[in-house]
Structure formats: structure tokens, C-alpha cells
């Protein structure tokens, strides 16, 4: 597994880097046969250290967790425990409901945009143009998954919505968390 360990405006020593590699590698190896890479970012806000970790699995799924504590090692340990819990749940669901995936998830590229919203305190005015102002443009990937795997990916990422392509089709579907706590699935069918 490849590791990318960095600090946001703080220095990360060799001892912490070694600790992160050994502990994270051990935690991920318990629940995943082929993790590909991980990103660990440490930061500090006031007296509190924060650790944010993302692990990319060979199945195309991503597990994300974050931890906070007054000491940097404790922040990482909190983050590692949360990540381990997510991976344990993911593995249990795979064993219970799905066959092991023999090939990695197929993905295709798509454009992702962040649009500027209106300020709440500003009086509404007629815009000069009806085109929204794009403040960020990024490349994103849309995975080819089953509906169950899409729901797991959304829950692992802690995202409110996930766009995916059902395996064997070229259609695009969406799963999302509803206000009542349930999961919604949008499956647009092409009509005749």
C-alpha cells in the first residue's frame, strides 16, 4: 500500500510517520486483501489535533474517517478506530450479501462543478445572465457498481449522494440519503 502522510501547517516527524504506516497497514490488512493507497493529513486547530484519513481499496471503494484529540498520536488512534469500524462493516456486508469481486470496479471520468450560491444577506437582484458562476471545476470518477455496493460506498464516504453506473449498463443511477433516514435510489429508465 502506498502512503501519503502530511501535515497541514505542522511538521510530521519520522516517528509519527512510522507509527501511522505500521498501525494503519495492520488495521487495513485485517479487512482488505488489496488496499491500493492511503492519505493521512494531520492539522491543528487551537489545542486540538485532527487526523483525516482516506483509504482507497482495490474494489474501487473509499473509506474515510477523521479523529480529534489533544495529542497527535491519540487523534490518529481515534481516526484509525473509526476507519477500522467502517472496514469491518464493509467486509461483513460483502460476506453476507455479495460474492467477492474478482476484478476491480470499472470507472469512467466525468466533470464535477461547484457553483457559487447567493449570499443570504444580499438583496435579491436580477442576474446579468442566467448562467451560474462556476467557482471550481474538477475531474471525478463514476464507478460501475451494484446498487448494494453503491449504498456501501456512499455510507463509507459519509456522503449524502452517490452517482454510479449499474454493472453491465451505460445508464447512470443515483443513491441518496433521504430526510427520513432511508436510502433513495433513482434509476431512470429510457422510454420507447
UniProtKB/TrEMBL annotation:
Coiled-coil stretches: 73-100
Signal sequence segment: none
Family as reported in the entry's similarity comment: Belongs to the HPF/YfiA ribosome-associated protein family. Long HPF subfamily.
Highest rank taxon of the organism: Bacteria
Domain Sigma 54 modulation/S30EA ribosomal protein C-terminal: 131-184
Protein name: Ribosome hibernation promoting factor
PANTHER family per the UniProt record, alphabetical: 30S RIBOSOMAL PROTEIN (PTHR33231:SF1)
Assembly behavior: Associates exclusively with 100S ribosomes, which are dimers of 70S ribosomes. Interacts with 100S ribosomes.
Entry keyword Ribosomal protein: yes
InterPro entries noted in UniProt: HPF/YfiA_ribosome-assoc, HPF_long/plastid, RHF-like, RHF/RaiA, Ribosom_S30AE_C, Ribosom_S30AE_C_sf
Localization, UniProt: Cytoplasm
Job description of the protein: Required for dimerization of active 70S ribosomes into 100S ribosomes in stationary phase; 100S ribosomes are translationally inactive and sometimes present during exponential growth.
Gene Ontology molecular function: ribosomal small subunit binding
Gene Ontology cellular component terms for the protein in this record: cytosolic small ribosomal subunit
Keywords: Coiled coil, Cytoplasm, Ribonucleoprotein, Ribosomal protein, Translation regulation
GO biological process, one term: negative regulation of translational elongation
